[in-house]
Each structure stands twice: as C-alpha cells, then as structure tokens.
C-alpha cells in the first residue's frame, strides 16, 4: 500500500484519490457502542468502489500504521456511507484512541474474503445437519454473524459449556425467540 498513496500533506482536499481503488482522507475516531470507527462518506466510498452496498473489503492504515496494511470490511451504514471500524491492533500500531484526528489510507481489496476465522466445531456442524430450519438460518446469516458465533464457540473451555451453548445456538437458529451471545434472536437471526 505504501508508495501508491498521495503524499502532499499541504493539499486542502479532504480526500485524495490516486486511482479508483485508493483513498486517503482525514477523519476523527468516533465510537459506536463499544466499537471505535471512522466515518467514510458516500462520495468517498463511491470512489473506492462505485455502487457497493455490502461490506466492502479493504486494506487499511491509520497514520501510516501498521506497516503491513490491515484487512477489514467497511460496514455499510444504510445510506451509502460506511463505518470503518478500527481494530485494537490498528489503534495500538498507530498510537491512536477515540477522539483523535487521524489520516486514513484505504485500498479496495477485491481478493479479501473474510470468512469465519475459527473452524466450525464438528458437533455444531452435525447438529445443524439434523435441523434443517437452523441450517437454513445459519446459511442466511451474514458472514460477520457466523464469524461471531464461531469465535464465541471456539472460546469456550469445557465440553459442557460447548454442548450447552451449541444447544442455545440451535434454539436461536431454529427460530425460537431467545437471548444468546448478548443479543435477542428472533426468527433465526
């Protein structure tokens, strides 16, 4: 990513484009719930990838850090804008926190496919196969939610806790209104 970005800091333009897939702009780190982020406006997002309405895969640096750009999906806000959430590793590398003014460099990364990073537990896969409604709802979940569930299950230490939580996941995915993983689930999502 470095070397391909605009470097004339004195330019007054709020964002600079070198080609259709590279964007550099100034922003302020805000917080949404517990998640630090930077706003990416509709016109900025359009310059990265015209007409994109789903999570947008990008490479990211903040204030030139980390040295190896971070892979992430910018999340659509619903009006053409995006939330560019800043992982703790990016904030640590850049020495930034909520409220800081930052320079952000974003490069569209068509090859990035951020699927679940934790493998599906075999007992969870087997339980989904036995429950067609839960399997259908699992398949309909956005990849970010699937990733969240698999991360949650991978973090469980005991076999009892894993079995108990797989049963709760199946209940949630089966369409029963329930509370699981800190959120209310209705109709399987």
Secondary structure elements and pairings:
Elements (H helix, E strand, L loop, with lengths): L14 E3 L4 E7 L1 E3 L2 E6 L1 H7 L7 E7 L2 E12 L5 E4 L2 H7 L6 E8 L13 H9 L1 H9 L2 H13 L3 H15 L4 E3 L2 E3 L4
Antiparallel strand pairs: 1-2, 2-8, 3-4, 4-7, 5-6, 5-8, 6-7, 9-10
Helix pairs in contact: 4-6
3D architecture notes:
- This protein is α+β, with helices and mostly antiparallel strands.
- Helix content is 32%, strand content 30%.
- It is built from six helices and ten strands; from the N terminus they run ββββαβββαβααααββ.
- The protein has helices at 42-48, 88-94, 122-130, 132-140, 143-155, 159-173, and strands spanning 15-17, 22-28, 30-32, 35-40, 56-62, 65-76, 82-85, 101-108, 178-180, 183-185.
- The strands form two sheets. The protein has an eight-stranded antiparallel beta sheet with strand order 1-2-8-5-6-7-4-3. It has a two-stranded antiparallel ribbon with strand order 9-10.
- A hairpin with a 4-residue loop joins β1 (15-17) and β2.
- The longest helix has 15 residues, at 159-173.
Summary keywords:
189 residues; alpha+beta; 8-stranded antiparallel beta sheet; 32% helix; disordered N terminus
Radius of gyration: 19 Å
Percentage beta strand: 25-35%
CA(first)-CA(last) distance: 37 Å
Largest sheet: 8 strands, antiparallel
Shape: elongated
Please give the share of residues in helix.
25-40%
Helix/strand/pairing class, anyone? alpha+beta
**Count of DSSP helices?**
6
Low-confidence stretches: 1-20
Mean pLDDT: 84
Listing every helix as H and every strand as E from the N terminus to the C terminus, the arrangement reads: EEEEHEEEHEHHHHEE
Main sheet: which strands, in order across?
A: 1-2-8-5-6-7-4-3
Q: Would you count the extended β strands for me?
A: 10
């Amino acid at each position: 990513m470095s070397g391909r970005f605009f470097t004339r800091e004195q330019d007054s333009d709020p964002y600079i484009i070198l080609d259709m897939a590279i964007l550099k702009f100034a922003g302020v780190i805000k917080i949404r719930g517990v998640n630090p982020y930077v706003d990416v406006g509709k016109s900025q997002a359009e310059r990265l990838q015209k007409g994109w309405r789903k999570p947008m895969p990008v490479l990211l640096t903040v204030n030139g850090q980390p040295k190896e750009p971070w892979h992430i999906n910018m999340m659509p806000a619903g009006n053409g804008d995006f939330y560019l959430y800043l992982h703790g590793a990016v904030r640590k590398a850049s020495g930034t926190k909520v409220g800081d003014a930052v320079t952000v460099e974003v490069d569209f990364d068509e090859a990035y496919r951020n699927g679940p990073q934790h493998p599906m537990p075999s007992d969870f896969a087997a339980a989904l196969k036995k429950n067609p409604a839960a399997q259908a709802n699992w398949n309909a979940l956005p990849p970010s939610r699937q990733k969240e569930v698999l991360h949650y299950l991978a973090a469980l230490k005991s076999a009892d806790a894993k079995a108990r939580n797989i049963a709760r996941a199946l209940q949630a995915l089966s369409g029963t209104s329930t509370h699981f993983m800190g959120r209310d689930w209705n109709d399987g999502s």
